[in-house]
Specification:
four-stranded mixed sheet, 0% helix, rod-shaped
Length: 294
């Protein structure tokens, strides 16, 4: 009766029957029921009984044959096929859409991140690929539409092949501000007079010295970098304040604040001021009485 054998491989096992490292092929067993095994070798009876394999394979793998011979001269063989993929996939990512404003801020409602071209793997083939901003590998979401404003976020690409080799595909970092700033104006009037009219909630200011300045300037993400106040017929206010404004006419006077954030968004706010700090002039009335003679 011919001897029998079985081969084995040692190395780093991956997925789907693949190895992710060099392997050593050897005999797991070589037996003969009668005269005992005399010789054994891999890919030839006169070869070594172990074989170090460094070469990667395609998906079909590489087949190795174990040869055994017993002391009576009977021979037998056993076969095993092994697949080796030691190389991770190749990939890169990019920002594929979004509108840039000032200072590298994206100002569009969304920014799209996706893979730049095909993800490739020459051996076992690509199993999955995806994007993540939390540092946890993701092999499914391969296109992200980012909508939230942020002072900075990094997306990393991940890929995995069918053997289980993984890689990162680079990263993209960006900042996004799609929201305009806001503002409001106020005065420091300390002497409030009567209502301008019965149909408005505006009041006359009787103070002699009145300034117009910003009450609020808000921008949640990129921050305010410029703010000015202007009014018709006068130069823009210095230091974002109009000091000691003159009295106005009956229609009041309009002041406009302008703010701009670092991303380039602009906004304005308006305030109409009614100021009359001069009291009406006193008038002297005289009467002449004629005395009737009696």
């Amino acid at each position: 009766e011919s001897p029998s054998c079985e081969l084995q491989a040692t190395g780093t096992k991956g997925d789907d029957g693949w190895y992710k490292s060099d392997i050593k092929v050897s005999f797991k067993s070589a037996t003969d029921k009668t005269s005992d095994v005399d010789k054994k070798g891999i890919n030839g009876i006169d070869k070594d009984d172990t074989l170090d394999v460094y070469t990667e394979t395609d998906a079909k793998g590489e087949t190795y044959t174990g040869h055994v011979k017993d002391k009576a001269g009977n021979t037998g063989t056993c076969k095993a096929t092994y697949k080796i993929d030691k190389t991770a996939p190749s990939c890169s990512i990019k920002i594929s859409s979004g509108t840039l404003g000032n200072k590298d801020w994206y100002v569009s409602d969304s920014v799209t991140i996706e893979f730049d071209g095909n993800v490739t793997d020459a051996r076992s083939g690509v199993s999955g690929y995806g994007l993540s901003s939390d540092g946890i590998a993701n092999y499914k979401d391969n296109k992200i539409t980012h909508t939230a404003d942020t002072t900075g976020i990094t997306y990393i690409g991940y890929a995995i092949d069918k053997a289980g080799n993984t890689t990162t595909c680079g990263s993209v970092t960006f900042k996004k501000d799609s929201t305009k700033p806001s503002c409001s104006l106020k005065t420091n009037c300390s002497a409030i007079g009567t209502k301008v009219s019965n149909t408005t909630d505006k009041y006359w200011c009787k103070s002699s010295t009145v300034d117009v300045e910003f009450a609020t300037t808000n921008d949640a993400t990129s921050g305010i970098v410029k703010k000015v106040i202007s009014t018709e017929g006068e130069a823009e206010a210095k230091d974002s304040i109009f000091s000691n404004i003159p009295d106005t006419g009956a229609n009041g006077k309009s002041y406009t604040g302008y703010v701009e954030d670092e991303a380039g968004h602009k906004a304005d706010c308006e305030l109409t001021v009614y100021k009359d700090s001069i009291a009406p002039a006193e008038s002297l009335c005289t009467s002449t009485y004629l005395k009737e003679s009696v």
